[in-house]
Amino acid sequence: MRPRVVVGISGASGAEIGIRLLDELRLLGAETHLVVSRAGGMTVRQETDMSLQALRGHAAFSYAPSEIGARIASGSFRTDGMVIAPCSVSTLAKVAQGIDSTLLTRAAHVTLKERRRLVLLLRESPLTLADIRNMEVATLMGAVVALPVPSFYLRPASLGQAIDDIVARTIEHLGLPAPGLRQWQGLDRSHSQQRTER
Predict the structure, then answer these.
(1) How many CB atoms within 10 Å of residue 179?
(2) Which long-range contacts (CB under 8 A, 24 or more apart) does 175-178 make?
(3) 121 neighbors 147 (Cβ within 8 angstroms)
(4) Checking phi first, is residue 115 left (phi over 0); if not, alpha (psi -120 to 50) or beta?
(5) DSSP structure class, residue 60
(6) What does pTM read for this prediction?
(7) What whole-number distance in Å separates Cα of residue 58 and Cα of residue 32?
(8) What average pLDDT score do residues 97-113 get?
(9) Three-class SS state of 144
(10) How confident is the model at residue 142 (pLDDT cuts 50, 70, 90)?
(11) Angle 181-29-85 (CA atoms, 0-180°, nearest 5)?
């Protein structure tokens, strides 16, 4: 069966990450189910030239956050996992505390209770103690809290390439193949030798 992934976009900065994730999953042949929070829709419009309707076209299926009875709200609807990209601290708090007030947080709760992979690309800095504790709780429940920071050691040539690196790592966190993943190959020995000589 083709992979099936739920993708959430919440109201943190970094909407382009979620959009690129949808596109890469489609290239992998995955069936994607998208839910965008109200604040997430506002961020998409602010940070990109894309309408919410156009964004929904990047997914195989899409749902409004108020559709609490949608199929992704049930554990009987099998998926390979869920990613919230980007994930706001508000969404993190609701996931950590089990607050299922919208389809986005309900789908995340279902993912955790069914012991499926949940990846939260948290976009916030600096963090409060409440944020750190919520990260701890989410991690203890089985989620992967991943900060979408650039892999500077791979020397991305552009912001787009940095986003592609983040997306590839996210797909790997889901346990799916990530053909675009650029891997660390170890220190360049000539650079290492120069440092030693200094």
Answers:
(1) 9
(2) 175/80, 175/81, 175/117, 176/3, 176/5, 176/25, 176/28, 176/30, 176/80, 177/28, 178/24
(3) yes
(4) left
(5) S
(6) 0.92
(7) 9
(8) 97
(9) strand
(10) very high
(11) 60
